[in-house]
Amino acid sequence: MNRQDLRTLLEDVQAQRLTPEQAHGRLLQFLRQAPFEDIGFARVDHHRSLRQGFPEVVFGPGKTPEQIAAIAERIVSAGHSLLITRTDARAFDTVRQKVPDATFHELARTITRAGNAPPGKGIVVVAAAGTADLPVAEEAAITAETMGNQVDRMYDVGVAGLHRLLSEHHRLIAARVVIVVAGMEGALPSVVGGLVDVPVVAVPTSVGYGASFGGLTALLAMLNSCASGVSVVNIDNGFGAAAIASSINHLD
Amino acid sequence: MNRQDLRTLLEDVQAQRLTPEQAHGRLLQFLRQAPFEDIGFARVDHHRSLRQGFPEVVFGPGKTPEQIAAIAERIVSAGHSLLITRTDARAFDTVRQKVPDATFHELARTITRAGNAPPGKGIVVVAAAGTADLPVAEEAAITAETMGNQVDRMYDVGVAGLHRLLSEHHRLIAARVVIVVAGMEGALPSVVGGLVDVPVVAVPTSVGYGASFGGLTALLAMLNSCASGVSVVNIDNGFGAAAIASSINHLD
Amino acid sequence: MNRQDLRTLLEDVQAQRLTPEQAHGRLLQFLRQAPFEDIGFARVDHHRSLRQGFPEVVFGPGKTPEQIAAIAERIVSAGHSLLITRTDARAFDTVRQKVPDATFHELARTITRAGNAPPGKGIVVVAAAGTADLPVAEEAAITAETMGNQVDRMYDVGVAGLHRLLSEHHRLIAARVVIVVAGMEGALPSVVGGLVDVPVVAVPTSVGYGASFGGLTALLAMLNSCASGVSVVNIDNGFGAAAIASSINHLD
Amino acid sequence: MNRQDLRTLLEDVQAQRLTPEQAHGRLLQFLRQAPFEDIGFARVDHHRSLRQGFPEVVFGPGKTPEQIAAIAERIVSAGHSLLITRTDARAFDTVRQKVPDATFHELARTITRAGNAPPGKGIVVVAAAGTADLPVAEEAAITAETMGNQVDRMYDVGVAGLHRLLSEHHRLIAARVVIVVAGMEGALPSVVGGLVDVPVVAVPTSVGYGASFGGLTALLAMLNSCASGVSVVNIDNGFGAAAIASSINHLD
Amino acid sequence: MNRQDLRTLLEDVQAQRLTPEQAHGRLLQFLRQAPFEDIGFARVDHHRSLRQGFPEVVFGPGKTPEQIAAIAERIVSAGHSLLITRTDARAFDTVRQKVPDATFHELARTITRAGNAPPGKGIVVVAAAGTADLPVAEEAAITAETMGNQVDRMYDVGVAGLHRLLSEHHRLIAARVVIVVAGMEGALPSVVGGLVDVPVVAVPTSVGYGASFGGLTALLAMLNSCASGVSVVNIDNGFGAAAIASSINHLD
Amino acid sequence: MNRQDLRTLLEDVQAQRLTPEQAHGRLLQFLRQAPFEDIGFARVDHHRSLRQGFPEVVFGPGKTPEQIAAIAERIVSAGHSLLITRTDARAFDTVRQKVPDATFHELARTITRAGNAPPGKGIVVVAAAGTADLPVAEEAAITAETMGNQVDRMYDVGVAGLHRLLSEHHRLIAARVVIVVAGMEGALPSVVGGLVDVPVVAVPTSVGYGASFGGLTALLAMLNSCASGVSVVNIDNGFGAAAIASSINHLD
Amino acid sequence: MNRQDLRTLLEDVQAQRLTPEQAHGRLLQFLRQAPFEDIGFARVDHHRSLRQGFPEVVFGPGKTPEQIAAIAERIVSAGHSLLITRTDARAFDTVRQKVPDATFHELARTITRAGNAPPGKGIVVVAAAGTADLPVAEEAAITAETMGNQVDRMYDVGVAGLHRLLSEHHRLIAARVVIVVAGMEGALPSVVGGLVDVPVVAVPTSVGYGASFGGLTALLAMLNSCASGVSVVNIDNGFGAAAIASSINHLD
Amino acid sequence: MNRQDLRTLLEDVQAQRLTPEQAHGRLLQFLRQAPFEDIGFARVDHHRSLRQGFPEVVFGPGKTPEQIAAIAERIVSAGHSLLITRTDARAFDTVRQKVPDATFHELARTITRAGNAPPGKGIVVVAAAGTADLPVAEEAAITAETMGNQVDRMYDVGVAGLHRLLSEHHRLIAARVVIVVAGMEGALPSVVGGLVDVPVVAVPTSVGYGASFGGLTALLAMLNSCASGVSVVNIDNGFGAAAIASSINHLD
Predict the structure, then answer these.
(1) In terms of Cα–Cα distance, which of E246, E252, E55, E231 is closest to E141?
(2) Which of A206, C230, F181, G194 lies 20 to 30 Å from E250, alpha-carbon distance?
(3) C168, C199 contact by CB (below 8 A)
């Protein structure tokens, strides 16, 4: 039961589609679930969808394929959308034994199974500077889509060839929120931030070498952006950027 | 002429309140202005309100009181809202000779003069961990207010005394976007991020000593927040956080 | 012979259970041992239990399984408790040929064999923020138990879901000392430190990515904790935290 | 009302020195106080003594002398011990107008007024490596004393002249907890940690130049101590070390 | 005697305008000068113009006004161009007592007196992102001019308002070498580097706050530029950038 | 069509070797090409040779051999020079199936196929401090050669054996631009910069261990060079240095 | 009584110049002194000359002029050489009231009064790269001289003008130990280390700006020197380098 | 021909054991050798023994076994001592085909073949803090021995068990120079430096984890040593420390 379900239930009572007794029963059934379910190596949070707008997301690293599959099964069996990030084909082989209709996105390194996420209000643009930034950009795009958002991908638009970005200006302006993914000198968010007036969520990537220091340079550059309207998430955190963008895009 | 003005003008044409010729004349008058005005030591950007949703903001450091006053005069005479950040009483003395009805906010170190900023849709909560964080929190609050947002201040709610924060839970939940300001270990955004489902903009402050490294620790902590929905701006950048929050709060 | 043994011996003399001559003989026998025993690649310290309250602990990295087993054998044959940290199954295979009743704790990566460690006075709570922190938390818990302490594990209580921690408040309050293990933004010790008045030993972990910099962010955050009563050990140093907690918990 | 008061009250009931009604009245009177008192620029926490074992401590930086004096007055009028850290003579002049019997400790940069802090169980040794470390060492010593502990100062015992430390071995061994204060290479806690079996709280100081990086080197060295039993607080945080030591020293 | 003088002398011999004996005499006179002149607190290098293309430049910091003036006098009396960087009005007052026709450039913090520097072949563009970068940009521009180059200043063209830069595209393309000066996120060199095919010398400035770390962020960003053709000098080193640009601009 | 081709075409018209109609046709044919060609995973930029003086260069890391080969084929079939950097023998095996006459440079880790790059005006010296710097030095040398420059390699001339460098002084002086490659303490550019008056492009390498921090030390040292005329590129960026040197060496 | 005095006394006994009784008396008199003298704010170490080859040295920072003078008086009255470092004229005014024949070295910021330091065996060369390095170089030179060494100063011999260093090659070769002082890129020790076969002690200085990071760059460069025979001390630690050099120069 | 050989030759002439003609011939024969021999991938320096006191040393990393063996053969065939550092068993297999009597030191990772190195004057003590530091300590010890020094190894004497070090005080005092090897907090050099008056060369090692940052902590601690007489080399640079120690130990 997510927020949308809760609202629908109350509207159904108002509209006489449900008796108060029926609504009461459904609420009790939901509340009788423990807010989190202890499955030994993890506590699966079943109320997060209500508190936070989207069910618990599984972060892959440090979990065995079996653990990931077990958590996935609990989430799906509770009726939630499934999103597993930073995972791989080996984990997917195990997951799909429990969740046969899950999908693996190789470039994005995510496993998803669409649930009943309410739709976002506008378009989330995901812009990426170079081809090496695509795994992070795709993590953001797949996450945003799984959370119910319409996504417009705009890749390979780095600042050293401005014509590529400027020729897409109309698509940028159509966005309700823009995720900008870039490594190396991390300059793209500043340029995009100067072209739009909607929120820009910047994701530095670890793409680069030498004095890129694993994405630190891009991170620092983005934090110092001279364009207002730019906020920043952790290096390579495509998921986090999408969660913020989705949160913005679901505001009434 | 900001976006609201532009929309009003077009609606007036549609509603026959203006003839196309009148509207045309007004548009021409606006466009005849150079997009930026060169006043020697700076180029004042008069179209930014149209492109970016808010007129140019004056960043005080590195400018003489006379330069600040001159820019302020140009902005006000062009009919824009005035916002000067990181400034002081000495600059204000000079500014108010040119802009008599400007206001100086001592704690926030800003000078403002309200313009016709369109109102935001919801409430912007500004939460601050400790009293030493107030200058940055106030910079954010004053900025957000000047940009047309209703602001709810929630100060001195650091995580080492959770009861202070939890007793304000209802105010947090009423927000459309939350700005969280904290120095030292920068833990407040994670706790707030776990309590709300709207976007959280985290502002690390340089409050602390020793291994706080001028706010670096709080910055890093916020970037690593285990709560999703948290994005981060530069250390002490209350203005930037408010600009993002306002941009989110003005989304339809 | 540890301190407890020494005290017992003296009490036995006082209580006439031992003649001074007998006690003298036993002491001589103990002192005739060299304070450390040179076994070629290491000097095994047999008096540490007397000086430091617990026998020498074997730190695994950089030692071959054979070397670890040889040291283990010397420690056990001297009648001490055995604790080997940062080790693995391969070393365990070799160790148990020499010390058949040793136990391997896979998650904690430790090998132990209980000795006659005197019991601690109260409960040591080991709280961990996320599941990825468990190897470090378990290193702390197993170490504390081997050193004679009663341990209460409280895992997966990160600050982004405060209800999980607050629902365990009574267990926290029952502790004589609390070890808090967390990676990423390292916020948990501040929250715990605000809830209890006993010493909190914070252990940053290398859990995280990007700007977590291998645990540096959590380390810095913990050092800047706004809660008093929080001290910090090295990144991933579960053993060290437990040694401190045990030292505190054994104070009369 | 601190914990000791609470316990005394209950014992008085048990011993028939108070009727339940009298005790009830006193408890009600205490609880009728708001847990924190809002004095405009700060919320003075009156229940901290109960929750945390010591009343709220005033951290001086960022507060005007008038603000410090106002908070001090509220704390003292509520019957609590007064401790103001990182302050100066100018603030003291203002404070003593409100709290005439307060004392200023110049080297320690603290203002105190003893309250009814319950006595610690043993001795807190404060050891400092060099004379330049004394301000931090004294902040620790004065804090510990104000919190009810007996303090033994052992200054100028740096590792480059071991005989100075070794000649005080007996005093070290008599401690229930040891605070070690050192700058530069921060080696003293490792040496002390090898000589005692009680908890050692290490305080790095910003004493040094060049590659001491404002105390970072001492901090890192202490975190990497090869002696077990050593935990660390922030650079120059003499207060924090004393709070931990006092917490340890007040354990039953 | 600089390179141009040397070439002219040899051409005069070839053209019979000088006898070999006359040329020999002039060369001897030059060579009889010591290559450097010891004036107590410095060795003034009189042959640098021949070796390095420009006479010795005086770096102001760490020298008294009297020392600067003494060096300046030696340089001018040897017939060289004078360039003093990182200096101030107080030093200028002393210098002009010895070198009456020297000029002080307040914004650039330099003192100059034109000599016979041979002219560069093309135009050196100095582009600066923001008004706070002007002191560094002017140091570069004045240095380049003093070294004989034609300079085109292009200020306040930061990437968050691309139209300001793009409207100057024709001036960029006319340059033989471009110096780009920027602080904060240091993105301008990447954008400029994508628009021109001549060498770009990037100068990070210490403009910014918080995570700009005194120019480190801009420096790192520029080193990671995705545009080829961009090389970088030290933070705030306008002089160094101009020396390189002049060296490039004087290549035949 | 590169710039040389464009100039030739116009000269042919002037010299009546082409009618305006013929020239017009050829220009149309070129312009009819899209400026970049989307091949799915990348946009190959066919106009870069005109804008930037050299066709697009393929950066190997993060691309599969198949992707590299596909891009290589598009570049070659468009008539451009081919340069692939940071690649390996496995990629070469795939590339030469599409581009049979490509060459693999093992030490330089590059694949090249000469095109019609216009010749540089002078000599590019590539100087390297130690044998471990050769991969980076060769990347620079091969890049410069592929871009049409004459290269003079001067290897193993580190500053700890000055006689090796000084014995090559005449070769240094003959250069139009010098690339200096060094790891460890990165001192060579300062020494070379003091010996020549042409531009020096310094390339720090990751050669070293311990406090070389992956080339950071050499990078910082080069940025602080006391020799003017030295600019710096990213760690190990031999390609970038050569691109700058070639840009300088192609100036008229 | 230093080592030389001790040896002389024993030789006098052997040579019958002293009776054993006389020698015994003198030794007793010396040993009757406490090894350190507690003067309240410091413990003056009177046996260091015997243990360490030179009496205690006073490090100025953090001590009042009165404290410095008091320590100085105790050292001189015990018959030792006096060396105060990092001090100033104000302290000197106070010191010379107690020690009238002390000398203040302004550039070196030291106060000295020669004692009976035994002479070193050879020459200590102090080489400095630039004029801004002179305060550190002079601290080294004055320290070495006060410790009994013959010093040869070789200033302004930075690597960007190699001829200045090479012309002094003969003086370098005559040294028994060389101290090399340099800021910025810190390259001089590598070049000197390649020219001599005696120990080189490198002193990085905080001279520089921007990416010199207060001497960190020079420090790192020196630690990575490709010349063997180079060891390093802390930034600006001229005293430390001289102490090492003197220790080397006094070896038999 | 090393320095000793050169001196002997001249003494033989003086002593009439050689005629001047014979000596002349031998010198010519030596000088006829090129000072360095180019073998394609390296320049082997045959005069270094004369200039620097020891022949060229081969640093293994980045060289193939074949290259190492080829260089080794050239060094040995020129009559020099052989020292190869940072190498392994695989390289040794190849080397001993060319140099059959070479020796591989597994722990020290070096290959040596003794030459005619002149003997040092005293004892070089190599002290190491922990067993994990032994590879670096052995690199130092083997290097020092190969360079002709008598070495006294003193291992496992870390500061957390001072009695182990103090019981070896007499061996420390017998040294002419002490190499101290330590990782983690790097405190041992300070303690040793306070016990001896001969030069101490400190070697930080990368032993440790977490906040040891690969040896950075030990390096910084050693640079900040409060004991005078301590200089420092790069992390893990056992070879460098031994080269310095040998240089000191060979001073007359």
Answers:
(1) E246
(2) F181
(3) no
Q: Which of E198, E195, E83, E89 is nearest to E141 (CA)?
A: E83
Phi-psi sector, B184: left (phi>0), alpha (psi -120 to 50), beta: left
Across E14-28, average pLDDT: 74
Residue G156 is nearest to which of E35, E43, E204, comparing CB atoms? E43
3-class DSSP state of G161: helix
Each residue's pLDDT tens digit, G74-118 = 889 888 889 999 999 999 999 999 999 999 999 999 999 988 788
Q: What is the pLDDT of residues G23-67, one digit of tens each?
A: 766 766 665 555 566 665 666 666 666 556 677 788 888 888 998
N-terminal to C-terminal alpha carbon distance within chain D: 20
Locate all alpha helices (DSSP H) within chain D, ordered by sequence.
Answer: 3-14, 20-32, 48-52, 65-77, 89-98, 134-146, 162-166, 169-173, 188-195, 216-223, 238-249
Instruction: Give one DSSP letter per residue of G30-99, joined into a string.
Output: HHHS-SEEE-SS-EEESSHHHHHSS---EE-TTS-HHHHHHHHHHHHHTT--EEEES--HHHHHHHHHHS
Contact B218 C224 (CB under 8 A): yes
- Tell me if A164 and F43 make a contact (CB, 8 A cut-off): yes
pLDDT of residue G197: 87
Give me the interface pTM, i.e. the ipTM. 0.86
Chain B closest CA to E40's CA: distance in Å?
38
Chain F residues whose CB is inside 8 A of the E57 CB are: 228
- Which neighbouring-strand residues pair with C85? C59
Rounded to an integer, what distance in angstroms lies between the CA atom of residue E79 and that of residue E50?
A: 13
Which residues of chain H lie closer than 8 angstroms to G229, CB-CB?
A: 52, 243-244, 247
Q: What is the pLDDT along chain A (252 residues), one digit of tens a residue?
A: 665 676 677 777 777 887 777 776 676 666 555 556 666 566 666 666 655 667 778 888 888 899 899 989 988 988 888 999 999 999 999 999 999 999 999 999 999 998 878 899 999 999 999 889 999 999 999 999 999 999 999 998 989 888 888 888 889 989 999 999 999 999 999 999 999 989 999 999 999 999 999 999 999 999 999 998 999 999 999 999 999 999 999 998
Kindly list the strands in the beta sheet with C82-85, ordered across the sheet, starting from the edge strand earlier in the chain: C58-59, C82-85, C110-113, C103-105
Structure tokens at G16: 């019958």
- What does the pLDDT look like over E186-234, one tens digit per residue? 999 999 999 998 999 999 999 999 999 999 999 999 999 999 899 999 9
| Distance separating the N- and C-terminal Cα atoms of chain H | 20
* Reported pTM: 0.89
What are the phi and psi torsion angles at G201 (to 5°)?
A: -105, 115
Q: How confident is the model at residue C39 (pLDDT cuts 50, 70, 90)?
A: low
Chain E residues with beta carbon closer than 8 angstroms to that of F241:
231
pLDDT in tens, D117-135: 889 999 999 999 988 999 9
CB-nearest to H36 from F131, F164, F209 is F164
Residues of C with CB under 8 A from a CB of H: 35-36, 41-43, 45, 48, 61-63, 204, 206, 214-216, 219, 234-237
Give the residue from C107, C106, C64, C100 showing the smallest Cα distance to C82. C100
CB contact under 8 A, B156 and D43: yes
* DSSP string across C6-58: HHHHHHHHHTTSS-HHHHHHHHHHHHHS-SEEE-SS-EEESSHHHHHSS---E
Cβ-in-10-Å burial (0-12, 13-18, 19+) of E74 comes to: middle
In the structure encoding, which two tokens stand for residue F126, read together?
Answer: 């590539």
The shortest C-alpha distance from H89 to chain G (Å) reads: 25
For the stretch G155-186, what's the b/e string if a residue is b when 16 or more beta carbons lie within 10 angstroms of its beta carbon? Answer: bbbbbbbbebbeebeeebeebbbbbbbbbbbb
